[in-house]
Amino acid sequence: MGKVNTVLGPIATEDLGITALHEHIGFGLPGCDLDTQWWKKPDEAFDVTLQRLNRFREHGGKTFVDCTGIGNGRDVEYFQVLSRRTGIHIVAVTGFVAGDSALPYFRNKSVEYLTDLFVHEVTVGIEDTGAKAGAIKVGVSRGGKLSELDKRIYRAAARAAVKTGAPIITHLSTDPMTAINIFDEEGLPLNRVLMGHADVGQDADDERDEMIAKKGGYVGFDTLGYDTEVENAPYWSRPRKERVDQFLRFINKGFLDRAVVSADANCCALGWPGLKGHSVNYVFEEFLPDLRKAGVSEDAFEQLLVHTPAKFLTLQEPR
Ligand SMILES: [Zn+2]
To answer: Which residues of 245-279 are buried (b: 16+ CB within 10 A; e: fewer)?
Structure first.
């Protein structure tokens, strides 16, 4: 019987249900906890977050994976409160969104130190919350190539994934071979890795997506809703139809079971405005209707939202 770590303790794989694999309660850069705007409106932020999570549950959503790395607003005690209030399973991660968003404290740490940190958070717990991390987050710093620090973090994550059986979620799929070579060298099969944000406009690459899928990896169409059509769209946005078409080309090649969909939304962003109106519910309210119009079946949705996340998140036997 498989299990997955949530902030309120491990649960059986079958209990995950409809799962959003890459979301945020609130992401911010290091220092975001000093954002005084946040302190001035804590009730409002809490209300908005509850509304969005409750709507997620009304859509049938049961599990919310918060991909916020250490020091980027990851607040496990807050996640525990939200999980109890909404009945939604929340999974927290260990790791960093990318090297350049890690706190200075961690930037000169060795691979061994980082490995021990990630293993500790998956097997013992995060700080003194009693909660264990359910996945390991890594990412590519700005510039598109893995920095020396990124490589150290990827290698530590790979070692921790092998030791604990937890999966790895990446921020960005750029420079894929550098990442894949590190995973290979550490003996981590690519079916334990979600190469995320493959749908970001400036980095979209069908051949890369196919290469990752053929090696057994998961490809994340997980910045859904950052559409250029939206007011104040950030630089990584792209026309909505382009993203849908990239996704359809991918699944039409037979890679439905390698695809992950999520919105990378913030319930309430920290220290930046976030994207107005954007939420985890974009998947239900906008993306699935787009796919229905394109003739994608309800069975495919079940694969995307239930079966794939369950298989990916289930902790493997440590090796
Ligand atoms: Zn994210």
So the answer is: ebbeebbeeebbebbbbbbbbbbbbbbeebbeebb
